[in-house]
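Re: the request from the purification team.
They wanted to know what the chain is likely to look like in 3D before they choose a buffer screen. I agreed to run a prediction and write the result into the notebook, where they can find it.
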Amino acid sequence: FYATNMTPQDYDFNCGIWADLEEKVRSCASSSDTLYVVTGCIVDEQSDVIMDRGGHLVRVPSAYFKALLRYYPSSSTGDVYTSCGYYYPHSSSIAGDKFSDSKYIMSVDALERKTGLEFFVNLQEKVGAEKAKKIKSQEPDSWWK
């Protein structure tokens, strides 16, 4: 937890849908061998600007996202990886929505296209290009919801 990990966030958003997602991530982590989590925000031309307590201008993110990659070993099927992406517009109007609503949950591949970022870049080296593409393009199943 560093200051660079802090962004201005709408109270209702933070205490609503974002808190629900963070609770789900904690639950996923406790039932996984390993859970990789990438969290970030989008700052763009739609982003508002506010002044912090020190008098500095700070951009308010227009959206937040999480990319998750779960690893668990299986004696019957070998190593298993699954993935999921979440993307939320930063708005109090969605605070009461379900965190896993189909408009917010997606494949990691879809999240990469939406954000312009590439997640889990070492996965290909670990499992091979074809399998990595399949893992990142899989639609989230009920375990992620």
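For the purification team: The two ends are 26 Å apart (CA to CA).
Please add any questions underneath this entry.
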